[in-house]
Write a structure and sequence with these properties.
Arc Repressor Mutant, subunit A, three-stranded antiparallel β-sheet, homodimer, 233 residues, 6 helices, disordered N terminus, DNA-binding, elongated, 2 domains, 30% helix
Chain lengths: 233, 233
DNA sequence: TCAAAAGTGTTACAAATACACCCATGT
DNA sequence: ACATGGGTGTATTTGTAACACTTTTGA
C-alpha cells in the first residue's frame, strides 16, 4: 500500500497538518487564554490560537513544543494533545487537519516581550472574542478537558508559580470550575493530598496579614499521579 | 500563509492522514477487540487495527464512519475520536499521521460475513497479539479512555444488545475494569440511575431460572448525559 | 434433589458538604 | 479602631464497601 499510495493525494490536492495551541494562564484570580492577531489568510486580522504546520520530519508533539518555546521562551511548558480537528471545511483555504494541544502556563514565568512581539494578548476566559476558523470550538473542548482532568490529576498546579499561597490555589480552581469553593473544605482536601510544603515566607500582595507561601513536594506529587487520585471538589 | 504554503510539503515529501479504528466488542462475558490480518506493507501479515487514508474531501469522522460501515455493515456504530498519533517514525513507509477512533459494538448486531470477508477476528482483550505499527499503543490508550469515560457516561451500555440482563451489564463492567464487582452494590447503583426499564421477558440462555431482560429509557438516559453523572463502581 | 445463576438488605466506614468565628496586620 | 483577607473545626449527610442467604428451575 505504501508504494501504490505514495501519490494518493496527488491528483486531488494536498493534505496539510497543523497543530494549534490552547494556552491557558492564570493571573489576578482569573483564568486566561493567550490569543494572537492573525497575520495570514484566512481570517487575517481576527484573533486566533497560535499554531503552525507540522514539518514533514517533525513529530506532532515536537511541533507543539517548538511553537510554545517560540512564543513563551520556556522549553518545558506543560501541554497535552486534545484531539484532531478534521472537518473538510474547517479551513476555507485548503484541506488542513489541525491537532489541538492545550497548554498550561505560569503567567509569571513567561517572557513577556516574546509574547508581545507576537501580537499576543491574554484574554479573560469569559470575555473571549470570536476566534478564527474553528478555534472557539477548540477552546471550549479544551476547557472541558481541563475541568475533567483537574479531577483526577493535580493538573491545576501547573498553572501556578513556583511558590504560591493556598488562596491562590483556590482561586485557580474557582476559575477553572467557575464557582465559589468553601475555603475550609478546600484546605482540608488539599492538605489530605500531602503534596504541599509550607514555607516560612508570606505573600503580602493581596492582604495585610499575608498568606503563607507553599511549594510542591514533587516526590509525593509524582506518587500521587501514579496511584490515581481524586480531586473532586 | 495559505498561498505561500500551498506547496509547503512539496520539496520534502507528502503528509498522509489516516484514521484507525479500535473496535471494542463484548461477548460471552468478555471484552474483545476486532483485529485484521494486514494485507499491505509495512507489516503485511501482522494483525492490525482497521484503518484507511482520509480522503481529501472527506471529514475525518466521516472516514471513520465509512470504515466502520464497510466492516460491520452497521451505519450508526458508536465511535469517538481518541487522539492523533503523529510520531515521524510511527510508519516506516512514509509520513503518515493517524487519528485513532474507538468504537463500541454490540457483537450481536454486526454482519458476521462482512467481518469474515475482511480477514477479521475478535481477539479476547487479554490475549491480544502484537499489532502493526503503533497499534498496540493505540489500543492501550483506547482502553484507558474507555475506563475513564465509563465513569461519567453510561458508555458501556453501547456495547449491549437492545435487550439485556443485569448480569450481562455487570459482566460488561467487570470486563472493562478487569475486576469482580459485588452484584448487590452493582444493582443498587444501576437502579439509582433510573435508566433501565424492566421487561416481562426473561433470558434463559445463561441460567435455568432466567434473568429479566431490560431495555433503556432513552429519555432519562439523555437527561443523565447532560446533568453529568457518576458511575464510580 | 441438586447444581447454577438470579435476586435481595443491612451495617460500617469514608468522604463530601454545610456552616461561623477569630486572627493578623497595614492604614 | 477598623477593614480586609487568612486561617481554623465540627456536625450532618451522602455515598461506598463489605458481607450471605433464599429463590427458581432444568436436568
Amino acid at each position: 500500500m505504501a508504494k501504490q499510495l505514495i501519490d494518493y493525494y496527488s491528483h486531488i490536492g494536498k493534505m496539510y497538518v497543523a497543530t494549534d495551541c490552547i494556552i491557558f494562564g492564570f493571573d489576578s484570580g482569573e483564568l486566561k487564554l493567550l490569543v494572537f492577531k492573525r497575520r495570514v489568510e484566512p481570517n487575517k486580522g481576527l484573533w486566533s490560537l497560535i499554531g503552525s504546520f507540522v514539518e514533514i520530519d517533525e513529530d506532532v508533539d515536537k511541533a507543539a513544543s517548538r511553537i510554545l518555546k517560540e512564543i513563551t521562551g520556556i522549553s518545558n511548558v506543560f501541554f497535552e494533545q486534545l484531539m484532531a480537528y478534521g472537518k473538510v471545511e474547517r479551513d476555507p483555504g485548503y484541506r488542513c487537519i489541525s491537532i489541538a494541544q492545550y497548554a498550561l502556563i505560569r503567567i509569571d514565568d513567561y517572557d513577556e516581550k516574546l509574547v508581545e512581539s507576537h501580537g499576543a494578548f491574554w484574554y479573560k476566559f469569559e470575555d473571549l472574542p470570536t476566534l478564527a476558523l474553528d478555534h472557539n470550538l477548540m477552546v471550549l473542548d479544551g476547557l472541558k478537558r481541563l475541568r475533567r482532568r483537574a479531577k483526577y490529576q493535580p493538573i491545576g498546579f501547573e498553572l501556578l508559580p513556583e511558590k504560591f499561597t493556598i488562596p491562590q490555589l483556590q482561586a485557580l480552581y474557582e476559575a477553572i470550575y467557575q464557582r465559589k469553593l468553601d475555603s475550609r473544605n478546600f484546605r482540608k482536601k488539599v492538605n489530605s493530598l500531602n503534596v504541599l510544603i509550607k514555607l516560612d515566607e508570606k505573600d503580602k500582595t493581596s492582604s495585610k496579614r499575608g498568606a503563607y507561601l507553599h511549594k510542591f513536594n514533587h516526590e509525593n506529587y509524582n506518587k500521587l499521579l501514579l496511584s490515581g487520585f481524586n480531586f473532586e471538589i
